[in-house]
Every structure is written in C-alpha cells, then in structure tokens.
C-alpha cells in the first residue's frame, strides 16, 4: 500500500523535464504542486490522504522534495536533485517509490518527461510526466513492481498552487 503512495509521490517529481534538446527545466514546473485525489487512480492499496511536491531550480536541473501523508496518517518524505540528461541520480529519504535508490529523467518535449526509477541496477518503476500547456495540471502515469513483487499502476494528478 505504501509502495503505491510512494510511487505517486515520486512520479509527481518527475514531470520537471522539458525537451532533452535543450537541457533546461520548463519554468512552469517550478513551484508547489498538491495532489488532486479525486482525479487520481491507484491500482494497489489505499491512496495517500495528501501529497505536496516542491520543484526548485538547481543548476541545469531540478531539486524535487516530496511530502506525503498515507491513509493511516503516517508521513513519507524524500527528495532528489537531477539534471535532464538521462543519467541516474540518487534519491534520499524514507520510502522512495517502489524502493528506488536512483532516478533518471529524460525530457521528451517541453511538457513531457520520462522518469526511470531503479534499485540495485534494476528498473522498479517508469513514469510518464505530463504538464498541461497552461502549467496548471501535472499528470504522472506510472508502472512498476513494488517491494512485494506486485505490479503497480497509477495515474496521479497534481494541481499547481498559487
């Protein structure tokens, strides 16, 4: 159950990547994003009761901090700093999505990014991050395998905060 919540949190952070043709973060992604639970879908376990993702510029990349409250009220927090170059970068914190240790971000275009989460060299989660053209909605579509070797799938929607 927590794996799904963690997955959703991490996925939200991945949407930061613009086209890899220009290794810059789309400035529309920067800021605070809050989970829209009514528009999100989770395959396994209960969804989180709340989640906030903060995107900040960091050199040529982005720093992402994720704070989640799971259904039983327990906290999950993790973060990463990554460039949009397809290389793996370490993740720090508790209960990263599907137990991931690293994340690699690759921009598809200015509004779409693919994120790959790995543990011990094996991919445990892939996420397609899509931001709306107006920069108000972030949608993360994820597939992977959780810590219990169960398949996971979620579509997590976030709203930009003023």
Question: Can you give keywords for this protein?
Answer:
globular, 54% strand, 162 residues, disordered N terminus, mainly beta, ten-stranded antiparallel beta barrel, 8% helix, single chain
Account of the 3D structure:
This protein has 162 residues and is mostly beta strands. It has one helix and eleven strands, in the order H-E-E-E-E-E-E-E-E-E-E-E. The chain has one helix spanning 2-14, and strands spanning 31-35, 41-42, 50-58, 61-69, 75-82, 85-93, 102-109, 112-119, 122-131, 137-145, 151-160. It has a ten-stranded antiparallel β-barrel with strand order 1-3-4-5-6-7-8-9-10-11. Strand 7 (102-109) and strand 8 form a beta hairpin. The N and C termini lie far apart (31 Å).
Name the poorly predicted regions.
1-22
Roughly how many Å is the radius of gyration? 14 Å
The main sheet orders its strands as 1-3-4-5-6-7-8-9-10-11
Main beta sheet strand tally, sense and closure? 10 strands, antiparallel, barrel
Q: Class by helix and strand content?
A: mainly beta
Overall number of strands: 11
- Beta-strand fraction estimate: over 45%
Give the SSE string: HEEEEEEEEEEE
Global shape: globular
Total of helices: 1
Mean pLDDT: 86
First and last CA, distance = 31 Å
- Which percent range fits the helix content? under 10%
